[in-house]
Amino acid sequence: MDPQMAFNGPLRGQSVVAGMSVSGGTANVHFHHAANNPPQTAPLRVLPFSRNEDVVVRPGIFSQLAQLLPVSEARHAALCGLGGSGKTQVALEFAYRRADDDSSCAIFWVHADTEATFTQDYALIARKAGLSAPNSEELLTAVCHFIETQPRWLLVLDNADNLRLFGVGVTPSSEQASSKSLNSYVPKGPTGSILWTSRDGRIAGSLVGPMRAIQITSMLPLEAQTLLVTARGSNLKDDELDDAVALLSELHYIPLPVSQAASYIRRTAMPIKKYLSRLRDGKKRWALLKKTDFDRHRREGVSNSILETWNITIELLNEEDKTAVKILHILAYFDNQNIPRKMIKAVAAAAVATADTFSEVACEDNDGSWDVSCAESESDEDPEGDDQDAGDGDDIPHVTTNDSDKGEEDAKDTIDAPSYAAGHSDNIEEVTTDSDNTTDDSDEDTSDSDDSTEDALTRLREFSFLHMTTRPDGKQVYDMHKLVQEATLYSHGVEKNSSSNASHSQMAIRILTNLFPERKRETWEDCETLIPHVMRLSRCAKIPGQELPISNLLGRASDYLYDRGRWSEREVVDELVYSLRLMTLGQRHLKTIKSMTQLGVTYHGQGRYRESERISAEVLKLHQEVLGPRHPQTLRSMAELATTYHSQGRLEESENIKTEVLELQREVLGRRHPETINSMAQLAITYHNQGRYEESENITTEALELSREVLGPRHPETIKNMAELATTYHNQGRYEESENITTEVLELRQEILGPRHPETIKIMADLAITFYAQGRYKESENITTEALGLLREFLGARHPRTINTMFWLARCWNRQGRDEEAMALMNDCYRLHCDVLGPEHPYSKEVKDDVDSWVLARREAEHPSG
């Protein structure tokens, strides 16, 4: 309590409040003597608002309240949850229902958000009750006693968000401990009940029992739809339903934003579709969320803006726990769902380490501690030369295209996506199941013993800013309401690119860069968890000075998506990285050129060979100018261009460049260098597709032996060379040998890459082709059908590999007498090949030859010669 409100003794006599003023949180109450009032015949009821006839009844909540606060018993209960979740409206309707159910129950309502509003409402009750007192403290005491003497009573203490006013969290040594808390003036006794509303979940177990607080969350979808209709003032039309459902989902079914949206739509006569479109427009979204509107059931002068409502809570929390607010501000830059525990711990450690300012950037050392001195230790310039640049694995896609010749029984048609580049430190290494390098995601950490960190995280959960869940695997993850996330960003000026925004975003980038694990198979699960956060954080690229750090982080995400063969997702990342580096570094910078290379690889992986060729040719020209004709990076660019020629059926051009690359790499890098070995394998593939099977076999065998020695038997490049040798055996008619190797490769890829990786699916299709060549048509059909479904899902219906798999399925059907289905599918293949690769591509010609031969065979069957 404020010292000016410290009084002694109970209230005496009959007085009324003559006047009251509130200044700086202090209430000054003035009294005069009043004539005796006759006894009241009806219970006193002091409610600030009229009944809300349009209230949306939430049966689950009212059912719990009825159990916690029965009419005949004196109990305490609380409604807690986010601001705007509807706590006050629930409490108001409950109060009116109690009045309906119990005609003798006195009902009182007190705004408990500040000491001043608490005192002001107690003074109002005193005036209504005919009480008087010489000073404010005696007034509070008198009202408390008056309520306690009622035969039956209900007191609603609304917006008790600052629980320290009621003694919760106040330590004996604190300044507040020297004054009386407002809880001293909260009535007790056997005849009445109290209903609290608070944004602070700590009210459970402090002011009410641990099991006597109801968490108010989002409405159910049907409840939110009812609120939308009621607040808009008109029913939904059939053509509005889908947009209404989408709008409610966008607003997370939270009452305040739903009500605000409906009110705005009603006043402006704006279609729901248009409002939804604006809400999804980043530039217009905050303008809508900041709007405030008059509400007769909200206290005058209190904003009902969605962003301002939660900003008030953030400011309140900041007064109590600055570390918690810093954690919240950093987390706001990440995705709002599935935040792993280790990310929370890293953010908390950074927030604690930078207790007073974010002007110095903290980053995590290997021992898990935080060192602000290392802010400038990480260079944005990573070398682009020989085997030094993390991420160069994508610079040589080594796309293997095993085009077949035109024989039916001895031809095996496959298209490889970009394979794993050999010889780079960041590449996927030989994988063993008992790796010691798996990222530790244990929730056990000595840093958790830090009281300030744990207290901060607890406060964020108690204010409903964070929600913690435990996954089936036992790991903890956190979620954050999307709208709370936006309110947090709004609270420190993201829209204005403020210095606070820059420092918090810089911290978030550093944390996630540090957390993103080393590139190898064992860390895929961790990478997958972090990818949504990287993509969310990429929005910080719009903040001046954050372009390069974001591009570096996105580059690591690109490497992971490459390893998983997820080309569509990678395209978005690579295009953003390239645009950022082009803007900040210029066209001729090595990092910009590298980004172009990665984008070309992605286009190739998507089957967009002409676009890939265009970029590859430009990259080669730049590397020749910047690095010289014999630089390893220039040779990689030559190899990539040769790959695009190969994929377009330009085999002679591809062979010439590949031969030149191989000769230069033997001179510059040596015969046993991983890139030299890979170039050998690439040249063998071209020989294979030219029908030069013996030459292809010899080079592939040599490349396989070298890759086993240099890279190991389980390295992706070694496995790729095994697959190519199996294809060569197939086309030599050595089907059993081909089947054995292909089966081994399939098992390895399922183990290392997973069963749904594009390279694994490709080997499934290869095995099906071998079964076809052996006359095992049903087995071939089953595997081909499965592979086709997966390829359509992961690569799309127009990817050359998908179309090629359709081709083999048509052949299987034809061999089993399903002529009409086979012909229809083969015609689809021809049309797609012509659209994607062109009518002169070897694949297109091969499909046309099959169609022509089938048509001829059908004619001969229908009209056999004499």
UniProtKB/TrEMBL annotation:
InterPro entries: AAA_22, NLR-like, P-loop_NTPase, TPR-like_helical_dom_sf, TPR_rpt. Residues 377-394, 428-454 have a biased composition (Acidic residues). Residues 364-455 are annotated as: Disordered. Pfam families: AAA_22, TPR_10, TPR_12. One of its GO terms (molecular function) is ATP hydrolysis activity. It comes from the Eukaryota. Residues 73-164 form the ORC1/DEAH AAA+ ATPase domain. This is AAA+ ATPase domain, tetratricopeptide-like helical domain superfamily. It comes from Colletotrichum destructivum.
